[in-house]
Amino acid sequence: MGYTSRSYHRGFGLKPPVELGKEYEADIIEMSHRGDAGVAKIQGFVIFVSNTKQGDHVKFVITRIGRRYAMAEPVRERKDEE
Length: 82
Description:
This protein is mainly β. It has one helix at 6-9; strands spanning 23-27, 30-31, 37-42, 45-50, 57-65, 69-74. The chain has a single domain (17-74), classed as CATH 2.40.50.140.
């Protein structure tokens, strides 16, 4: 009978399924509570992607990794002019 919640310990001790600086692609499934970032999940791990909205399908780069979530920035598509 402790003061800890069950969700706090979910995944405790496991390595996050994302790596810093690596590019990923996923759907934005909802908005953050503050409304300033979209929420994506990779293998159940939460990733907050700035400058996105629900329904977007985006490529993003991980900029910060915490124990329970990661932060990311969307990748801008480059148009090669050749």
